[in-house]
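Dear colleague,

Following up on yesterday's call, I've attached the two folding results inline so they're easy to grep. Please treat them as preliminary; we haven't cross-checked anything against experimental data yet. The first protein's sequence and structure tokens come first.
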Amino acid sequence: MYFANTHLHSDLSDGLWSPEKLVELGQQIGHKAMLLTDHDTIAGYARFQRACRKAGILTMIAEEPSVTTSFGRMHLVTIDFDPENKEMRAYLARQSSRMRDYTWTCFKEAEEKGLLRPGITWQDVEDAYPDITYLCNQWVFRLMVEKGIYTEEEIETEVCPLFTRDKATPIRNQAEKRV
């Protein structure tokens, strides 16, 4: 019996580990095939593909685009597409830009309302991760921990709720709770 993982996110999207680490972990547990399905980006695919080849694990290009339908916002997994396709490249660039803008907006709103501890600026985030095309909240959180502004536990309990999409006005909701 062979095992395959067809839904993995790396730290170039909203996952915890690098593409190489995902392959290493997959190899350790016996996966024979793996797909990297980062949200709205294929930035990690070349690295993932190299690591899979080296480990003898089968792979093909994949990603998990965010889409809006009549049912609301959802994710789909796309597999085996042409990464050089002009429309696909434009779509991925738009999605990465949207995520960066969303993260920047949450960061700025929380900062302006005094909900974040001082010690980090948006420029610090961009300077720390110049090669990240899909700059989501986790990169902000990671830098806050690295700079000693918050602990990982505090990120979970105090900061993550400020950046959630699950509420229509996440920052205002948090501000009202603290007043």
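Below is the second protein, in the same order (sequence, then structure):
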Amino acid sequence: MGGMERKNGCTGKAGSGFEKEEQKANTAPAPAPVVKEKPVEVVTKNQAINKEQKKELQKQQRQFQQAEEALNKNKALLKTLEAQLADPAIYADKDKFLEVEQGYKKAAEENKQLEKKYEEVFTLLMELEEQAG
């Protein structure tokens, strides 16, 4: 017979079934694919507190912005009323003067309240930002 004979009588020619069987026997079975499980998210007490703090901080930031806008709007009104009170034509009309003067007093009182609210919200906002880190 041509080629090299083996003990079992098979030839070692390329492409014979014997070589394929021998290769299969020498290779280890492929390892099972590794399936990575997603870690389970555990919400701790601190995370819940941080979420609440963040929510409160955002709320106070909105309130601060609203207080600031209201204060600026009222200050603009005060300037307008002051300019009207400085106008000599207003003094010529007693009713108009009293109307503008009442409006100014009302706006000045509202300004005090808005400034107080602004300061309270600002202080609370600073405390919350300090706690948040």
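For the second protein, one point worth flagging: DSSP finds four helices and no strands in the chain.

Best wishes,
A.L.
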